[in-house]
Amino acid sequence: MRASLYDRHGPASEVLRVEDLPTPEPGPGEVRVKIEYSGVNPTDWKARQGVTPRPIDGFQIPHHDGAGVIDAVGDGVDPGRAGQRVWTYLAAAGRPSGTAAEWTVIPAEQAVPLPSGVSAELGASLGVPAMTAHRCLFADDRIDGKTILVAGGAGAVGHFAIELAKFYGARVVTTVSNAEKAELASQAGADLVVNYTDPTAAAKIRSFGQVDRVIEVALGPNLELDLAVIKPGGVIVAYAADAADPVLPVRACMTANAVLRFVLLYGVPADALREGAKDITAALASGALTELPVQKFNLEDIAAAHEAVKNGVVGKVLVTPT
Question: I need a surface site. Which of 19, 163, 315, 318 has the fewest CB within 10 A?
């Protein structure tokens, strides 16, 4: 099979290469997926570059997310799953075989059935962002009737956080930085979209109602705004880290009576991941989740795909391995 891989950390153009590798066979409890699209996320370029280094056992095929068709199953897996369209999550977590290849082999539960009518592009866009959004929303109980602030509503996590929150009964306000991103957030279903650079941003959010939960992409820059709108006992959930750690204004956090939670998908309990996959698939089946703008790259151009994500491209970046 054709696959992209790296065997050392470094810049995309220097360490990523495409090679022919033996087509993998699924072991017990595993399935093999013929990949149609592989989704690229910030965690992928950070791991490859060594910003958040992970051990490399010989070589690493990058990317956790993808969509395709199961074409072989290992012992202990229902043979009827062969031929099933699926979306994947955490394919490269502690394993060498990510989705930037013609085939990947993963634990069967990490290949989630893709409902009829859902495009492979949308399926490959889920994984890390949708599962992260779900955990941020639901780690602190139900959200129906709650008011949710989604910071960065035009990003992939923000996009799915808006749509999942609306599907499961919450009111949603989101912050963005420009008109293009505001349009994307509105299309995702946000009830109120606020430009966070507006000096009256906090007042506009407070007029919508006190916030029960903040889904936060940039804790340091946004914490002052979050504390200004959070209700007592409300939860600020951070899922991304800036290069420099923020200085925590302890007294202001105490005054707001806020709770801080941190989410990294790799450490989320397995039962919560299974619940997330189930809820996301239910939302997919109902038509509640939609695609972001997509940029597609061939496998030979995977370095450019990584650079696009690193440079903050709006929308999703997908790689076609065939």
Answer: 19
Q: Compute the average pLDDT of residues 47-76.
A: 95
CA distance 315 to 197: 21
306 versus 53: the higher-pLDDT residue is 306
Rg (CA), the chain: 20
Any bridge partners for residue 40, and if so which?
A: 317
Domain encompassing residue 121: 2-126+289-320
Supply the angle between the helices 270-285 and 156-167 in degrees, to the nearest 10. 70
Q: How many domains does the chain have?
A: 2
Sign of CA dihedral 221, 93, 121, 289: negative
Q: For 97, which DSSP code? A: B
Q: How many CB atoms lie within 10 A of CB 161?
A: 34
At 231, the amino acid letter reads K
Q: What is the pTM of this model?
A: 0.96
Residue-wise pLDDT tens digits, 145-154? 999 999 999 9
pLDDT mean over 108-129: 98
Taking alpha carbons only, the member of 155, 50, 41, 29 closest to residue 98 is 41
3-state secondary structure of 235: strand
- Cα distance between residue 214 and residue 258, in whole Å: 10
